[in-house]
Amino acid sequence: AKTIMLETPTMTVSSSTSSSSAVVDDPTAEEEEAVATAAALVGENVMDSARGINRHQITESRMKAILARYDHADDDDEEGGGSILEKGMKWWQKQRERAQQESLQRQAEEQRRKIVESGVEEVRVGSTSLEHNETFRQMMNVAKPQLQNLFTVSRPRASKSGMGLSVQVSIDDDDSLWVPEAKIIDEPETKSMFQPYLLTKPVRQALAALALPPGIMYCPWTRLYSLARDGDSFFTFLRKVKGFQHSLLVVRTTKGSLFGGYADSPWEVQSQTSPEFFGSAQACLYRIDGDEVKVYKWSGANRYLQFLDSSAKMVAFGGGGGSFGLCVERDFQVGSTDRCVTFENEPLCPDTNFEIVDVECYGFLTGVF
Questions:
Q1: Over 267-280, what HEC string results?
Q2: pTM for this one?
Q3: Contact predicate 293/313, CB 8 Å
Q4: Is the CB of residue 106 less than 8 Å from the CB of residue 82?
Q5: DSSP states of 13-44 as a string?
Q6: What percent of the residues of the chain are helix, what percent strand, and what percent coil, each to the nearest 5?
Q7: Alpha helices in 119-171 (DSSP H)
Q8: Which of 34, 64, 198, 287 could form a disulfide with 259 if both were Cys (CB 3.0 to 4.6 A apart)?
């Protein structure tokens, strides 16, 4: 008779092919699994028995019967059969994976229990979060009263996975949008006297919220060109605004009307042969009545957004229907405004043709807070 001895630090198993070999009393299901495991993992300390070292003698047919209950091998194994040790190894691998899954589930349940029992009152943010960014804190200190009126946040609860927290956010049905203060960067000292800004602080704030794209409304402003400060030269204007992707043109007439346009593309000559329209759909026109601002967005009807003619010393917004929405020319001496298809705007001032007393152009410093 052939006998195979398998031994672990806690159990010795003797398997014999002889049908006359002595067999211990029927082991329990737990002991049967232990025997199969010992057969698969010889010499590994994975079997701890409270009774110390035990000896069981079991026939090979008995071992096969035990392993057959856990045999979920693939088609190749079903065809080839596989050895007892191979089956034992597969069974042990599945048992280990199942134990790992059960352990993770127990940990998740324990975490969920702790979160619920602790009655979480607040969520603390890590030291590398925006909460510890000075600029962000300043913005939030200013914005907090306005933000509290825009949405409410429910008390945190344990998430379904048990690994975090979840809240419900209710946003008020309000189209208003809070933006930080539209700050103008201080101009360097010059020999000439400082020229006051054409736009008041409330008007700048309204334009930032209503006319500027989301990516620009948070950026500081800088006055690139001022007719009163830099003179009425069209080419000085082009030199001052060169390199700025986004700009805001402000025009004041001799009769006190105040209006302008936002350009989302730089004021640069597009063609050396003939002037062309250019620009993006973010461009718009606006007019100011006191502290109230009326903005005319792109209608989508055409692409006549911005126009630059250096020979005529002219810049314009909008077109279609035989007229510009806004046009200033002749070194910013005169201009015109009328209805146009591009922005579907009303004339920006009572006089279709007007004389100019002052012009400003602001740029926006992206990446600066």
A1: CCCCCCCCCCEECC
A2: 0.55
A3: no
A4: no
A5: EEEE--TTS--PSPPPHHHHHHHHHHHHSTT-
A6: 30, 25, 50
A7: 134-148
A8: 287
